[in-house]
Amino acid sequence: MVRTMPLLRALLRTARVLRHTPRLSDGLPPDDAVLLDVPDARTAPTLVAAALGDWQPAAALLSGVRADGDWESRDRHVRRLAAFAYARDDWLVRWLADSPRDPDALVVKAELEVRRAWDSPARGERLREIGPLIDAAADRAPRDPVPWRIALDHARGTHATHTAFESLWEQAVRRSPHHYGCHVAALRYLSAQWYGSHRECFDFAEKAAEDALPGSLIKALPVRAAFAQLISGGYSPVHADRIDRATDLAVQLSAGYPAAQPGPAEVRNLTVSVLVRRGRWEAALEQFRLIGPYATSFPWTYFSDDPLGRFLQDRDGVRARLASMTPLRTGPQRGRTDRDRPAAH
Length: 345
Description:
By secondary structure, this protein is mainly α. The protein contains 18 helices and two strands. It has a domain of 159 residues. The protein has a two-stranded parallel sheet. It is globular. The two termini are 32 Å apart.
């Protein structure tokens, strides 16, 4: 009888998974409908035009958001256009040839060259060479914080001192005190992986989130610090409590945005990754529903060369976990909160 108990438990678990997994799929798009790094509705037409060699829609988009002072959108558009130019930059070369002092062309070029330098074996040397390009982009658009966000990323790769980094940070926040991209760049610099520590990283993230405007993506900075702590390993119960508080704040932020939108997708992908690693299955499933079809490369590239495959794998795993915990003949388990569930390590 004793020997049959593990087999019986395994059979019951399998029966629960088979019975309840279809129900737990409600609200989730099928695997083949999930896409990776989908551009938003404003950027997509500029990428189509760029693929045809036409830079003017990109110029119109970036000049418009610059005139409006919509720095968050500008940063997203610049990143997306530079990512496209990484593989195909003929349209950008033509743009710069036609308008060599255009601040929008210069900022895309600066972002592109920083990305290329980061991927180069001669990273430090390449980054130092493109410092003047970043300066030119900043000079041509004095109100724009995006060149300063690029400068912060650049400084991390050139081993800038804390004093030099703080000087760049001051210039960035002078232009936009609540710019999300600049805060993310600063958080990376302060991480234990680079020039700070987990404590510095968390302290900066929590203070920034506390001061952030309602609904600002800056409120997701603590969950970024939590992710950095989790992937480094070796955290204590004190760290775990701080990680859970950060994740709760990100869950609250996510709930304030419409479901299945590309704008908050990266924050939601990050949040669900932390929830999975903390074994918070119910909250994770809700985030997967809010994500809808919008998977993002970050954070899944930390775990796999196939980020979309890893996203789908974790999504399946969450459904299977919840299904295996649900009794065969009753509704979902009650009496335990999501925060009470044991963490996954």
